Amino acid sequence: MPAPAPTLLLGDLVFPEGPRWHEGRLWFSDMHAKEVVAVGMDGERETIVRVPQQPSGLGWLPDGRLLIVSMLDRKLLRLDPDGLQEHADLSGLASHNLNDMVVDGQGRAYVGNFGFDPFGGDEPRGTELILVTPEGEARVVADDLRFPNGAAVTPDGGTLIIAESYGKRLSAFDIAADGSLDNRRVWAAVPGIPDGIALDAEGCVWVAVPFRTAAAVRIAEGGAIKETIEVDQDRPIFACALGGPDRRTLILAEAITGDPSKIEGPSNGGRLRQVPVGVPGAGWP
Questions:
Q1: I want to staple 269 with a disulfide (CB 3.0 to 4.6 A). Which of 94, 228, 256, 281 is the partner?
Q2: Does the global pTM surpass 0.85?
Q3: Chain segment 37-57, per-residue pLDDT in tens
Q4: Residue 33 — φ and ψ, nearest 5°?
Q5: 90-to-76, 83, 112, 138 alpha-carbon distances in Å
Q6: How far apart are the C-alpha atoms of 236 and 37, rounded to whole Å?
Q7: What is the distance between the terminal CA atoms of the chain, rounded to a whole angstrom?
């Protein structure tokens, strides 16, 4: 039986990234509009905060404060009641601009970075994954990752799954009590370049695959593809999240391009679409 066709949740965006379901709304970074936005399932949007150096990954501390990746200055910011504050400066640890992030149930943030300039003709190379504690202390916990991108933590807090975009795979790590990572392994090969991901209650991962396939695919550990939702070839999906009241709505973050040199404001066609799925989301984010 074919999957239902996605329907529009929110349009007139530039480049939506890092979608997260939190307290009854979908939160995301409109990266090249330089703002963090929240939207309800009724389509009503709210601009939460502007981030001049481009926002990406989002997550929350246990006390409810929002953490935001600030890409170009390589900082992790924290939204306090009196405004944005620096939570951690990662410029001395990250090889290139910061990117996506997952924050676990203890408030530990795992932050990736490009490792190279994907729009400037550089050759891809391995890079670091950085752990930031709830107190703002940072250290490298994995290296030689091929463009670490979307990430998720299992409901028991014991496993980190991360998309290595230029490795065309999902990789997994065991999470130690202090947040360190061990036992790196290939969780699944991906048919294309994986970007954002979302974990479900059956242990499968929805993966945004923007290039070649222009689809969201649901993959089991080992690589079996369980479901595929195709999107427009000229407006691929770059990230996804499982949200809605029961987390059975797959939300697709789509745009024409992520290349900043080719973006012309709202004409970039950024949008969020939604489609019901059978298995709810689980874990973090």
A1: 256
A2: yes
A3: 999 999 999 999 999 999 999
A4: -90, -10
A5: 7, 20, 10, 7
A6: 20
A7: 29
